[in-house]
Amino acid sequence: MPSGFTTFVEGLGRTRVWRSIFRSGAGQSTLHRSLAIQQSVFLHLFPTKVRKRMIAVGATWYLGILTLGTFLLLVITGILLMLYYHPSVPQAYADIKDLKYVVSSGLFLRNLHRWSAHAMVFLAFAHMFRVFYRGAYRPPREFNWVVGVILLLVTLLLSYTGYLLPWDQLAFWAITVGSNISAAVPVVGDKFHFLLLGGNQVNANALLRFYVLHCAILPLTAVLFLVVHLWRIRKDGGLYVRKSEPKDVEEPQAGVMAKEKQ
Amino acid sequence: MTPEITAKPIDSEEELSRRSFFAKLGLGSLGIAAAGTVMFYYRYLSPNVLFEASPVVNVGKAENYPVNSVTLDATSGIYLIHAAEGFFSLNAVCTHLGCLTAWKPEEGTIACPCHGSRFSREGQKLAGPAPKPLPWLKTWMSDEGNLMVDRSVTIPSRQFLRV
Known about the structure:
The structure holds two protein chains of two kinds.
Chain A: H1 4-14, H2 16-21, H3 30-38, H4 57-60, H5 63-82, H6 92-101, H7 106-134, H8 142-164, H9 169-182, H10 189-197, H11 204-235, H12 254-261
Helix pairs in contact in A: 5-7, 6-7, 7-8, 8-9, 8-11
Chain B: H1 2-6, H2 18-45, E1 56-61, E2 69-73, E3 78-83, E4 86-91, E5 102-104, E6 109-111, E7 118-119, E8 125-127, E9 136-141, E10 146-155
């Protein structure tokens, strides 16, 4: 027996405004549900149909989507922190202190940003270990592994650039040491060091450049590769589950190898 | 005679067709424009004026530094050392990864807090990952009688300034 709410939702699905946004309509058939995924700009990255075993916890431990979750959390808390933080030498450290002690909920949002950052690095590594030991990096998914490595590098660079922004002693010396490591690159190292810091020392230019990298360039790069990474899952035949792989892709078992040799 | 030469068939391996000539011209100009764009942004990203401290540091009167004293100027990152042989100045920035070192009077060594490099009072490397000794810096007496150090000019070691 349909409740009032169900009738309301079904009625809403038939309105002209709804149908102008969601072309697939409100039907419950397999075709309707497939079209709802296929015709949405956000959902069309994902397959219209997945096998239940692909989305079981045991298949992936959800490590990839958890990494994405921490990233979204970092974007939201990061934008909120940007409303109080000035990337300038006289103000940066004082603004972090204000966020901690003066701004309402500032302490919570700053700590959420910091802990999510640690969690994202941990989850990205856990995700990669899982993919590696499962053998999910092998063809046809080898390109998505490469995209994943780029995403790991962007994650580490986000972590590194964000480390300078509190402008305390720990931040200052960590960036001094880290940027000097980059200067060790043959031939272009010193030039790269100068461009990265906007000078020879970790100073006002360096703070501003790291801020721009942390808040604009690196997050946009991450989103760009993230879109390719998610879309590529569908293009490469869905999430890796050993049971659903074609037989010729399976790695040969030790026993099989021994038999073939005889 | 002349019509015979013009009537010769065009050697396709040597002669460019009009289409491929324009294609090459177009790609070449795009390549030059791309190189110019890279140079343009490289130059934009390299600052021409730096608001950094002057490399020349005035460390004051020689009388302020008794014999066998080691004084660290943390803001400019230099040591002024008054040895028995005379004055000299060392760069206090570790040659490993750029941390500021500290003088340990109880051990008579210069130590880096970041990765544990150690140097003698004259800058020689004693231990740790540092690849080079601490460089000696140009030190002189100004006309006003102040000791001056130029952080950008290194000199061979054991060139003492006698006052």
